[in-house]
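queue> holo job accepted (tryptophanyl-5'AMP)
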Amino acid sequence: MKTEQPPAPAAARPTRALSGIQPTGRFHWGNYFGAIRQYIDLQPGGGHAAADEAYYFIADLHALTTVRDPARLRGLVHDAAVDLVALGLDPEKAVLFVQSDVPEVTELTWLLMTVCPMGLLERCHAYKDKKTRGLPADAGLFTYPVLMSADILAYDATVVPVGEDQVQHIEVCRDLAGTFNHLYGDVFTLPKPRLVEGGAKVPGTDGQKMSKSYENTIDVFEEPAAQKKKIMRITTDSRPMEEPKDPEGDHLFALHSLMATADERQAMADLYRRGGFGYGEVKKALVEVAARFFAEARARRQAIEADPGRIEAILAAGATRARAKAREVLDRARAACGLARTMPKGGGR
Ligand code: TYM
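queue> job finished
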């Protein structure tokens, strides 16, 4: 007699992490604690948070809206790749590539542009901020979130590790993907942002969000003497030394917490609450924990820099893998909206 079998569970879709980072200068602590640290945690084989696949790229097309010097841009792209590998991105586990090496993404940008309401982009903060400050904004900056959406959708990404400032752009991406899917069928995978506690909005030396445009950054691989100088100049309030202080909400304490051990963090919080200390002491402790935290990455960086061919080989291999995936998704999108005259083979997720 045939026995009734329970239905086989639906095969879970693979989790695919994807993120991009602009090569507009050297990476700062905000980039590391908000995003890069997550890239490493999510790469396959990287512990409990690991995704099944991970794609990370250097967003040179986005950087073109601000870096206008070709030699500088080339240098920044190379440095970005060296820095990412030095910080722990493993090209054996994750696909590391340069955004412009995948031209499929720019074609996909156009398809998304045709379903993108102007009002959606007018509300985006990068464009709005520039406009409010009376600065000239080009169409590249205005349509920036559409290119970013294509970046994400081209790889069927399910999770996008970022800092808080990028969440709005991921919402735009979900909106555009939803509209396209509504019009043409189930083409795109809707991604989710991934933020980490303590790292989503890393403060800069003045207490605002750390950002190149606010000139308040501390770079990951800055020369130790220059880094120390910046740390010693971090703004603090002018309350007297004796007064007990609340560590919560204090940006100096927040920066120290990112790199201190749990015991060091607790001891620092106790010191704040007790009072009777100078902020100079906290800054010195920050110099020390930062040097210790990034010591290994600094050493790795030196070794990688000594072999520039290796980085180029990693980026070339990454581009080949990334293009193959983006081609598959682009073909799916082209077929769905009526651009392809024959249905592509395969094209599954
Ligand atoms: P970008 O290059 O400005 O920043 C790279 C990553 O660093 C994070 N970040 C921060 N996180 C916490 N605190 C801070 N102070 C801080 N400053 C920067 C950012 O949130 C970001 O995750 N548009 C993107 C690049 C991009 C992208 C993509 C990202 C292009 N295509 C597709 C994800 C998916 C940008 O300009 O990031």
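queue> The chain has a mean pLDDT of 93.
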